[in-house]
Amino acid sequence: MNLTRVSFIAFAGFFALSNTSCSTRIGDSQGVTVAGKPCSSDRDCPVPANACQVWTCFEERCRPVAAAKDTMIPNESQVPGDCKLLVCDGQGQASALADKSDTPPEDDNPCAEEVCEEGEPAYPPVEVGTRCGKSGVCNGRGKCGVCLPDDKRCRGNTPELCSEEGQWEGQGACAPGQPICNGTDCIGILTVQAGDEFSCGILADGTVRCFGNNSFGEAAGTATRVTGLSKVMQLALGEAHSCAMGIDQTVKCWGDNTFGQLGNSEGGSRGSPVLVSGLTEVRQIATGRDFTCAKLPGGTVTCFGNNEDGQLGTTPVKRKLPNSAVVRGQTVQDRPVEIKRLAKAEQISLGGRHACAMTSDRTVACWGANDKGQLGSGPEEPAPKADKATKMTPIKGLKDVVVVAAGGRHACALLQNRSVMCWGNNDHGQLGDGTTKKKTGPVAVKGLDSAMFIQLGENASCALTVEGNVVCWGNVPVAPGSTGTDVTSPSPIGDLSSVLSLSVGGNHACAGLSDQTFVCWGGNQSGELGSGSTGEKPAPVIW
């Protein structure tokens, strides 16, 4: 029943009174009056003290009568905010009805509402997520907090959980094996690649973070996420540019683009990744000093970038790139071009200005610069003339190859018997044959017969052994206290074991360990080690 509050009393109709005693006394405004007082109208009867009784003149006598049922009692007798409406019960007494419109007073809590529930005042919480205060949010429990209960976030590399009170609570820093707090969870690092003076890592969620030199945007920041990359499967880092292959088998590159090594046909260096034009179904991506190559289905190889020494494996084409300066007459190619004279490639590796491929018959062919014998095919030769394509001649005496790797001006091959053969420049002992004399054909690395993977840098070479150790030769710190003194034969990296992956850059190297952590050592002039310390010993990367 809907009742409207009014300031007057609705009187009941007259009813017959039987056996009414005329001696009943009631009070009036002047004192004591006897029921049955003579009257000529209702005005002659006294004003009742009970709001649910009225006096009426009946048969010239004042008679008490109960107010009609549900007659609303005047406002001055109501209690505001008690969720009740006082009415008469038809028997001369007051009764209370539940009144939802008689809401209780505000309690200054923005996260609770004032309502009536079953005739009683109540303050239930407002809907979770309701804004409160300047920047707060209601927690659904009647409290104003800074977050919603059970929400998660990252604060640096520490995950935080929102409490029931709506406050952020730290859950402890991410573990070394899963050092990155991304979104709401701690995630691990899949691999770390070393470039010239920078390094990049692929995270378990397929994103990329880089640290070190960022002159051309190649590192895209220091220990920060590279924007525009997701679901990355492979990284390749050059001297001042980087490329990433995604799960969709396309490639994006960023950094220096002086020679078109980003492959986007637009010229100009880029601080964020751009898609390589027309490159799809990529199986492997590799970078050299200032050029890039990709292996496609069927063993096809396509390259782009600087072609001054024929390192693209194609007939040099002179072309001025848009939005870039003239580059001393050097020949460049700013979009992928297929190498026509190369047999089916199984794996490719790019060095300073030369490249090598392991072919389907487990032999190796190299092309590009040969000023230090880095092609492994005989005496040093000048760069190919502008009107002739690069030779693709297999290196004699080299077979049963498992992995090929190219360095600054040298190259090495891992054989099926776990030995390693190297050729090219050797001024720092990077061929590992115990000398510092260059070799134009393959020579065996001294005392190495348990290699399972090899990686080369500018003037150094390293191998990961089946025992999980790392040995290096050339100009890389290889032992505690080393300052880069040339080492002409494999020497173990001190305090480093249980290694699962290895990458060598310009003057530093990084390794992934069995506990899912990564360490780097070597040159650190641009912060490329990511450890904040010098590079005499392998130190954990701080993400």
What does this structure look like?
- With 543 residues, the chain is an all-beta fold.
- It is 0% helix and 38% strand.
- The strands form 14 sheets. It has a 4-stranded antiparallel beta sheet with strand order 17-18-19-20, with no helix packed on it. Strands 21-22-23-24 form a 4-stranded antiparallel beta sheet, with no helix packed on it. It has a 4-stranded antiparallel beta sheet with strand order 25-26-27-28, with no helix packed on it.
- A hairpin with a 5-residue loop joins strand 5 (84-88) and strand 6.
- The relative contact order is 0.07.
Task: Provide a concise account of the structure shown.
Helices cover 0% and strands 38% of the residues. With 543 residues, it is mainly β.
